[in-house]
Prior knowledge:
This is MBL fold metallo-hydrolase. It holds the Pfam family Lactamase_B. By secondary structure, the protein is of the alpha/beta class. The protein has one domain (4-231): Metallo-beta-lactamase, Chain A (4-Layer Sandwich), CATH 3.60.15.10. Helices cover 27% and strands 26% of the residues. It has helices at residues 44-53, 71-74, 77-83, 97-104, 158-169, 187-199, 213-223; strands at 4-10, 26-30, 35-38, 63-65, 88-92, 109-113, 118-121, 124-126, 139-143, 146-151, 173-179, 204-208, 235-238. It has a 7-stranded mixed beta sheet with strand order 6-5-4-3-2-1-13. A 6-stranded mixed beta sheet has the order 7-8-9-10-11-12. α6 runs parallel beside α7 (213-223). The mean pLDDT is 97.
Amino acid sequence: MDTATLTILFDNYAGLPELQTLWGFAALIRTPVNTILFDTGSNGRVLLKNMQALGIEPIEIDTIFLSHNHWDHIGGVDSILELNSNVTLVLHEGFSKHLINDLRGLCHTLIIVGNEPYELAHGIYSTGILAADPPEQALILEIGASLAIIGGCSHPGIAQLVEQSQAFVNKPVRWAIGGFHLMYSHDAEITAAIAQLQALGVSEVAATHCTGDAARIAFRAAYGAGFIEGGVGRTIELC
C-alpha cells in the first residue's frame, strides 16, 4: 500500500483537549483495504466516548488486533464487540485459553497467531509472538518501500520488534509507533534504545503510552523533526 493513517484513540498522554486520557493504548489504522483497531485501552466507555468525539463509528472497524493480554490493552474489547461483532479478531497463543474461548463466540472470525509472522492482508502482518513477560505481537504495515511497526507496550524491546519486522518483510522500518516500555529504565538504557533504533534506520518515532516522560524527552531531543507527538486524538499520516 502507498498510504495509511493512524489515529490514537486511547492514551495516557493528551493530544486533543476534548478527549479523555486514561492509562492504556488504542489506535485506529485506516488502510486502503482494512480498518483496524489496534488494542482497546483499559476502559470501553472512555474508548467509545473518544471515538464518538472523533466521528468514528464502531461499525467501521473490520479487524481488532490485540498486542498482549494486559488489562490496559484489552479492557475495551467487549464494548466494541457488543456494537460490532462482524469483525476479525487477532490474538496470539500467549493469551489465556479461557479468554480465547470466550471471544471465539463474540466475533465473526478469530485468528490465533503463533511464533511465526502472519500475513493478515496484503501489506499487513503480525510479527508473530515475541518472547517477553507477557508475550507480545506487533503490527507491521508495508508502506511503499518502507515499514511501519506499531507496538502496544513493546515488552520484548522496541528494537527486537523492528528487527523481527525487517527480517520478515526485508524492507527498512521507517516508523516505530506506540508504547516503548522505558518508563522504569535508567538513562543509559534509554540512550541505548535510541541508539539501537537509529542504527536500524528508524527515522520517525511516535513514542507514547508506557514510554515514560524521561524517554519521551530523550527521543524528542535525539530525533528532532522525526519525533511525532503522540497523545489521544493525534493522527499520523503514513505515506
